[in-house]
Amino acid sequence: MNEGALHSVPGADARAYNLVSQAYAELIPTAGREGDPEDEQDLAMVRRFAGSLPSGAAVLDAGCGAGRMITYLDTLAPLAIEGCDISAGMVRQARKAHPHRRFEVTAMSSLPYGDGSFQGVLAWYSIIHTPSAGLPAVFAEFRRILRPGGRLLLGFQAGTGSRRITTAYGHAVELTGYLHDIPETAALLEGEDFQVDEHLLRSPTAAERYAQGFISAGKSGRTA
Ligand SMILES: C[S@@+](CC[C@H](N)C(=O)[O-])C[C@H]1O[C@@H](n2cnc3c(N)ncnc32)[C@H](O)[C@@H]1O
To answer: Largest Cα–Cα distance in the chain?
Structure first.
């Protein structure tokens, strides 16, 4: 997608992340590096996700932000990783970090990829601004772009309810953060032909306000 099309995605989420993109890229360390927000158990889920994929597998980092999870995945396995994000500013940062990779500015509920394009989808803290009612549309897109047997890994703040976020990374923003319940999210995935095979509910660390949830699932072979 060219830069001229970058601002065609409306919405407060894109505006907010555009505003914070540079600070986000500077302040949030790559997963696995000192000071990152991930716990060892979270990283173990990512490692199992990477390890479950064949060498060279096509992987989409959906809601890639500034690309720090791509940097981490690159340390784990030789994968053909692409990224997408609703925020043009975040994609700009991701392109800076990964100039040779392909990125798209797009909402996860409407992905510009063909059916069965990927063997893996990572959605790491990118469903956190989507209410539960919006998740089936996102999961249906993940199912569509995955090959049968393809792998999906979700990371998110776990719980119920939502919160207004008015400051982030030194900027005034207007964002809503949604907590997702693990059994409910797993049921929504199963409704979209995913088979959930692992989940983790982790207690918050001292730096976190909420429990953290992770779900690993595979696309069943029932639909193309
Ligand atoms: C908390 S950041 C996480 C970024 C990255 N996955 C990471 O771990 O650093 C959330 C990202 O999801 C993106 N995002 C939120 N809602 C989205 C949607 N509906 N479609 C695509 N991207 C979305 C935001 O623009 C933001 O870059």
So the answer is: 47
CB 107 within 8 A of CB 179: no
What separation, in Å, do the N-terminal and C-terminal C-alpha atoms of the chain show? 26
Q: What is the pLDDT of residues 79-106, one digit of tens each?
A: 999 999 999 999 999 999 999 999 999 9
Q: Determine the Cα angle at 120 with ends 21 and 194, to 5°.
A: 110
How is the chain split into domains, by residue range?
3-219
Q: Which of 13, 61, 126, 176 to mutate to test ligand 1, by most ligand atoms within 8 A of the CB atom?
A: 126
Q: Does the pLDDT at position 9 exceed 50?
A: no
Q: Which CATH number fits domain 3-219: 3.40.50.720, 1.10.10.10, 3.40.190.10, 3.40.50.150?
A: 3.40.50.150
User: Counting Cβ atoms within 10 Å, is residue 56 exposed (0-12), middle (13-18) or buried (19+)?
Assistant: exposed
